[in-house]
Amino acid sequence: MSFKEKFDGYVKMVNDGLENILPSTHTLSERLCESMRYSIMGGGKRIRPVLTLSVCEMFGGNAKKAIPFACAIEFIHVGSLIHDDLPCMDDDDLRRGKPSCHIKYDEATAVLTGDSFFCSAFEVLLLAKKIGVSETSILKACSVLSKMSGIDGMIGGQVMDMFIEENGANEKIVEIMQKRKTAALIQAACCLGGIAAKVGERDLNILNQYGLSLGLAFQACDDILDVSGNENILGKPVGSDRKQKKVNSVSLLGMGKTKMKAKKYTENAISELSKLPNNQFLMDLTNFLLHRDH
Length: 294
Prior knowledge:
Blueprint: H1 3-21, H2 30-40, H3 47-58, H4 67-84, E1 94-95, E2 98-99, H5 101-104, H6 107-127, H7 135-149, H8 154-167, H9 171-196, H10 201-228, H11 240-243, H12 249-253, H13 255-273, H14 280-290
Antiparallel strand pairs: 1-2
């Protein structure tokens, strides 16, 4: 099976899982159900949930049992994108070529849709018990996802991004921001796949380091694409950081040093991955994400 066929197979598993989990209707919250479906089923490459499923299979686990974990990751990710697009944050009118949630509906609905995804992610994790995942694994997954999504992870990184110019930006601060805002959820995706497969602490630590390096390289490439004028991997309209004069690796270090940074973290990610068994798909996925045309 080719890389693309396997990747597409994982994406189908994720999309089918999301269709089964998403609320289709609710007497008192039809608008919320509609906005959730609009936001999560309208595109996206599903990189994070694919990482979860592929890591689980890499260790011999059953990917079907990891689907609730993968969907929970995607819930957190999409909720964060909805909030990022709000006028009080990045103020983006488009997401994946379509009107952002607050443009399609309204700001209040967008805020509540993002909130609903954050809350529902942990409800989704608990659904894994119905398909035979142990309570110990579910609790461990909840612990990892909550930490990587909160003040020490994604949300903390978003706060840093909003106020980084006021507090003074340098290379170290920007990297801390990127570790939280981007890499933390990628780390969580990798670790949840390992937890679903019941890996030991050694392998979980390797997955954590792999996800960290992958996330930092991913963000460096994203910054390069944002400036170079191509669509980035998230489908976000390019040039928005430049238009808003936001601090990123390119604006701080320049294009040459940012490319070196992307290369360095790509090599680190591959080095960590080489310590794990059955890694060919993830090697291919790493190259797909980080060595694409700029």
